[in-house]
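Could you join me in thinking about how sequence relates to backbone shape in a protein? We need material for that, and I hope you will provide a protein of your own picking. Label the sequence line and the structure token line clearly, so we can match residues to local backbone shapes. Would you write everything just below, so we can both look at the same thing?
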Amino acid sequence: METYLILARETLEASLLVGILATTLKRLGRTSDLKRVWGGAAVAVITCLVLGILANRLESFLSGPVKTWLDIAIFFLAAIFLSFMVLWMTQNAPSMKGRIQGKAMTALESGHGEVLFLLAFMGVFREGLETILFLWGIALQDSSSGIAIPLLEGISGVATGVLVVFALFKGFSRVPMALFFRLTSVLLILMAAGMIASGVGRLISIGVLSPLVFQVWDTSNLLNEHSLVGTLFSDFFGYRARPSLMTLITVWGYLAVMFAGLWRLSQTRNATSGGALPEKAARSTGHPGRR
């Protein structure tokens, strides 16, 4: 489930960028420049696949303290990137289309069509790097699982992201993008909390962090971490049947900060978008509201 969600979200964001560039070029009658966009996206995908293979190879060559610290770093880096991605999209998603179109039109007007290649490459490459990091963290949380299910989830996630964007741009359906991003943002935050819990657990196990209290409670009789549902809750939501106090403080503190940040950004965006409504309404009715 985690692999599906990550690839669906990242593919959707990358596809939106490429789709905006492509539709802008078509509207301007510059279809000959589409090859730059497709070329940039294709090179980015190939580069990310190569980096993903190299990352997988690197893990197999490491052992001992180096591997332990690399694993811990991956957990926290993945959580940090997930968090910034969620907050950035919450703040910038409404203006993303206009900004991308502006950059594309500036490149065309200045005669620098190669910028289209770079825009497509950098956008897709960024999402690809984030995907590699997230999937690496997911694999570390559940290293005993086989390749078949994650591969199927990954293919399904990519297909979902592409199909949603295709339907959106072709007008086949009115995809509730705001709701989609809101729901996936909440799930991604919970995933990041799970990675933080794993990272803190590793730091406690090697003696870097104190657990404060080794076991605050024991809910293994209700939901065992090693059961099918327990594993899902452990990897996806940071559930621990026997959590230490340090783990609870870290995870709950992170969740409080992230959800407060999401709420604040949403309130600020709503206030900004709604601030112009009274003035607009006044102009349309011819009553500016002067005293």
Summary: The two ends are 59 Å apart (CA to CA). The chain has one domain: 2-275.
